[in-house]
Amino acid sequence: MAVHKLILDDAFDDALYTLIAIHCRLEDYRLAYLLNKRLGIVLSRKASDLDFYNGHVSYSIFEWEDKKQLTVWSLVSNICKTTELKQSDNTSLFDNQEKITKTFQLLPEYKTVNYFLKIDSEISLSKEKYILDSILSIPQIATAYSVDSSQLKSKENLIFN
After folding, report:
1. N or C: which end of the chain has fewer CB within 10 A?
2. What is the spatial distance between Cα 37 and Cα 32, in angstroms, rounded to a whole number?
3. What DSSP character marks residue 88?
4. What InterPro entries does the record point to (predicted)?
């Protein structure tokens, strides 16, 4: 009896998408509005955020499905700040509770990036350059650039469905 052996060389790791990092201080809804206006897309807030660590950390996400081009556009925040109250062990007259703010990143390799724009489709370099130039023409955006997804260590965080 012949034995057939299938070798899968990272065929499933190389998903076809373009990832753009965006640095800006805008609120998520304001950035989505400006991107919609500049790029001619229709990003809208999803009903539920991306939840990690059993709902303790959540990232806002805006999405648009372009049915003509068979493309899904996703704008997701990279930074989530949570506040916890730490009870002090000191016994005193006054209740000393400290507020501790913790910061989490969707992609820890890019700690300074505020948002990521993920385009679930392989697009040409000229179209990618056009999208980047359009994003950079928005005055409130400090900078934007393409991210090489093959170098990411936490790619699994970019699976939104």
Report:
1. N
2. 9
3. P
4. IPExxxVDY_fam
Q: Which helix (H) or strand (E) holds 38?
A: helix 28-39
State pTM to two decimals. Answer: 0.82
Nearest 5°: the CA angle 90, 92, 94 is 110
- Measured CA to CA, the distance from residue 127 to residue 52 in angstroms comes to 33
For the residues of 40-82, what is the DSSP string, one character each?
A: T---EE-SS-EEETTTTEEE-EEEEEETTTTEEEEEEESEEEE
* pLDDT one-digit tens code per residue, 73-115: 999 999 988 887 776 666 665 666 778 888 889 999 999 999 9
44-45: strand order across its sheet: 44-45, 61-66, 71-77, 115-119, 18-24, 141-147
Task: Give the single-character DSSP code of 139.
Answer: T
Q: For 105-159, what is each residue's pLDDT tens digit?
A: 999 999 999 999 999 987 888 999 999 999 999 999 999 999 998 888 888 888 8
Q: Is the dihedral of CA 78, 84, 86, 92 positive or negative?
A: positive
Residue 39 neighbours by CB under 8 Å, 6+ apart: 131, 134, 135
